Structure formats: structure tokens, C-alpha cells
């Protein structure tokens, strides 16, 4: 099974969201999560492309050239209100394989991290639209919320996010 794992944003060029309490940068969190998820999937025999680029077209081109069968983009959320928190996972359209993959990953994160379940959503994001395989974008938790930020800042909890995302992928593959 060939899977692309994309860490959202790019350290040094595009920090993405910034943690409200510690200044933790989304691009740094997603790089670590990408590497961890890739490691867990390689451990069960998957071939994994890790890609983190500032240019979205480079991400999707690399994934398509790799021949990915699944694509997972990892992000952290932010909102104007510090109250907003929880996990949501995006797919391109309802009824698709991507929607099933999104449900598998969302369920693992909610069950294992206990974050607020904000559900599955659809979006016309470049990385969902231009990938030639089932694709999802996971918003793990909110860096603009102090409790969620704490989860992403703690090494053990961050690792639990990575394990949950990897298990979501393997759950999807087992069901398909
Ligand atoms: Zn992001």
C-alpha cells in the first residue's frame, strides 16, 4: 500500500497557526506528526512518501508521481474564538472513498484523544481536489485553544495523534 503523508505548511516559510499559550507553530507540529505517522505505517509494511512543501502543486504532483493509493494531509486548526476546539477531517465529496477514510481517521482520534468531535466536512482544497486517490485533510486540534494546544505540545499526546492517524489509515485499508 502506497500512502502519501503531507505535513501542512512549511517551517521557516509558512508557520501556519501559532499556539496561543506557547507559540507552538503548526508547521513544526505537522512535520513531527508526518514523520511519526510515516514511521508507524512503514512498520506495518506500507510504502510511504513524506512530503512537506510550501507550494501546494508540488505536494500533489509529488504524490501523484509516487502513485499514492491514499493521501493524508495533517494540519492544526485555529479560530478567532479561543473557545473553538476539537478535531475535524475533510474530504473532497460525500459518498467517496475519501469520506470513508476521513471517518476512520476521525473516529480513531476522537476515541483515543478525547477531543471534541467536530465531524467530517467537505472542502474544495487543492490537496483534496488535485490528488488522484482518496484524500483527506485532518485538522487534529486547535492551536488557538489552550487545552487543545496542550495536547499538541505534549510529546506523548502528540504521539497518540500520530498513532491514531496511522490506525485510521489501516482501519480503512482493512475495510476496503
Ligand atoms: Zn493548516
From TrEMBL:
InterPro entries: MurNAc-LAA_cat, N-acetylmuramoyl_amidase_3
Cellular component GO terms, alphabetical: outer membrane-bounded periplasmic space
Residues covered by the MurNAc-LAA domain: 60-170
Keywords: Hydrolase
Pfam families, per the entry: Amidase_3 (PF01520)
Biological process, per Gene Ontology: peptidoglycan catabolic process
Molecular-function GO terms, alphabetical: N-acetylmuramoyl-L-alanine amidase activity
PANTHER family: N-ACETYLMURAMOYL-L-ALANINE AMIDASE, N-ACETYLMURAMOYL-L-ALANINE AMIDASE AMIC
Protein name per Swiss-Prot or TrEMBL: N-acetylmuramoyl-L-alanine amidase
Amino acid at each position: 500500500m502506497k500512502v502519501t503523508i503531507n505535513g501542512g505548511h512549511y517551517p521557516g516559510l509558512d508557520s501556519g497557526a501559532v499556539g496561543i499559550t506557547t507559540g507552538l507553530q503548526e508547521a513544526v507540529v505537522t512535520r513531527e506528526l508526518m514523520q511519526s505517522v510515516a514511521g508507524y505505517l512503514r512498520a506495518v509494511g506500507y510504502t510511504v512518501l513524506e512530503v512537506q512543501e510550501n507550494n501546494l502543486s508540488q505536494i500533489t504532483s509529488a504524490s501523484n508521481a509516487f502513485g499514492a493509493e491514499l493521501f493524508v494531509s495533517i494540519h492544526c486548526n485555529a479560530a478567532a474564538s479561543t473557545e473553538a476546539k476539537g478535531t475535524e477531517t475533510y474530504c473532497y465529496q460525500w459518498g467517496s472513498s475519501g469520506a470513508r477514510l476521513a471517518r476512520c481517521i476521525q473516529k480513531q482520534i476522537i476515541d483515543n484523544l478525547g477531543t471534541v468531535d467536530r465531524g467530517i466536512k467537505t472542502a474544495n482544497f487543492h490537496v483534496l481536489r488535485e490528488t488522484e486517490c482518496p484524500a483527506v485533510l485532518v485538522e487534529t486540534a486547535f492551536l488557538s485553544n489552550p487545552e487543545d494546544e496542550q495536547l499538541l505540545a505534549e510529546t506523548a499526546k502528540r504521539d497518540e495523534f500520530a498513532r491514531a492517524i496511522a490506525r485510521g489509515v489501516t482501519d480503512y485499508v482493512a475495510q476496503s
